[in-house]
Amino acid sequence: MKCLRNFTILLLLLSLCGMTSCNNSHHKILDRAASLMETHPDSALMMLRLIDKSELNSKKEQARYALLMSMALDKNYIDTTSFDILQPAIDYYIENGTPDEKLRTYYYQGVIYHNRGDRENALNSYYKGLDMSHKCSDSLTIARALVAQSLIYNSFYDFDSYISCNLTAANIFKKLGRRRYEIECLLNTLTGAILTENKSLGDDILTYLQTFQSMDNDQKRALTRRKISMAIKFGSKDEIKNLISLQELNLSSQNDVLNLALAYTKIGEHEKCLQLLDSLKSERAPYDTLRLLSISEPAYEGLGKYDAALSHYKLFSQIQDSINLIKFKQKSQTIEEKHQLELKGQRDAQLKSRIIWGCAGGIAVLAMGIGILFLLVGSNKAKKELALEKVRTRESENARLKSEKDNLAMENKNLQLERDMKALEAENLSHRVTALENESECLKALIGDKRELPLEVQNEIKVRIEMLNSLLASYITNNNQFEKSYDIWIKEITDNKVKFMNSNRLAFQVSHPRFIQYFEDHGLTINEINYVCLYAIGLRGKDVGNYINKPGHVNTSSAIRKKLGIDKHETNIGIYVRKLLKSL
Known about the structure:
Layout: H1 2-19, H2 25-36, H3 41-49, H4 59-75, H5 87-96, H6 99-115, H7 119-130, H8 139-155, H9 159-176, H10 179-195, H11 199-209, H12 217-234, H13 237-248, H14 254-266, H15 270-282, H16 289-302, H17 306-448, H18 455-477, H19 480-495, H20 497-511, H21 513-521, H22 526-536, H23 541-548, H24 553-564, H25 573-583
């Protein structure tokens, strides 16, 4: 697995080296490093070290590189006390960054101050970052800033603020699913509850912590240590005795030894207490002097060694007074800082007020100047408008004359078109009359033929001759009276659909006997031949359907196609019939 991981990193580095030849390679590397920052900070650090800072041209890109590099160093446990790396981010993001960028910049500024031992400036940086947390979306950095802030509050013995910061951070870690960090913050909160003797809060936190099933060994030992501290602070001797055996098996730190020594004191086993404290002193390692004195003083008193008890008590009081003085100075300094901030805010407000009033005065003067300028411009504009109005009047008159000329030309053109149309209509009508005369002569010839025609057929031909004669008389005499009788005959004939269709078939039977014979040979019924003859006089399928107005129109058409052998996709039945009429 280790070889595979090294091979993957090598491939990643080679790909990144190839990327450096592109103009946007730095941007891609920064994006990739940012995406790996939480899960693989070591890989992110290697990527960032591939970038040549001298090639970062814009301040924004330099700031982003500075912030990401500071993050990578911190997450790889490389503590730095210099602002050389972070400074470009401070210079750019504090003024121009988004709320999240400002938050991260203030947080890592605080980390550097903390590494330098400058707790006051570190706390101030964390405070500035958290002051805009309501505008930020980076909840993880907010939680980390709260934890870092709580450590400083703890060193200042401000345990109430220590508890508040850890509780807020625990809630954020819970929402983010960071269970390990949530447990750490809750353990810190439990410590604060013990130090402030807040039994109610301590019981609630302890009960909640005992519901976790995913604690590691370190967290379990820390919980055991705090259980003993709770029992020492609030419990009975029996409760302390039940927990001592657990603590004796988990002496992994100086705090564990001090806890066990205090437990021995509480149950009256002062000799064991002092033995543990002596063993702690003999290790020559730094230890919590104040706590050791607070434990040893009652142990000496319990053994009747009052001189030693008094000596330890005096030393304890001196250290405690020093601590209270530090706390007082810190509070005084905080008050002074707040006062300075308030004075600065007042000065800024006054400066803004002066700027606003100055701008308002300037705007008023400018408005007056603009008003005078508008009056002058208005006067000139009126003169120009008068001149322009005269020009527009002349142009309008010219346009009107041109329009009248164009209209006259259009009227002449329309008159010419109308004359041409009438001439065309006359020519068409002449052709039509000639055709009607020919048809009339043809029908008369049929009647005069020696062949005996059925009386029914002769009557139909006579009706059609009379209709044609009326239409011809209307054209020759230009008398609408003849045309009216023609219209009446047409309406009477076509209104009786069955009669008209029969007469239409009979007319075709006389004029085109082979046409009718063709359909009879193909087995068409009289009704079907009547149907086909409607197409023969020039009607379309839609016209035929509208005229006969029968539901079976489509079925009739299909039956005729089948008998004639016409595929429904092959051709239109009307076209087929009219072609057949011309060919037979």
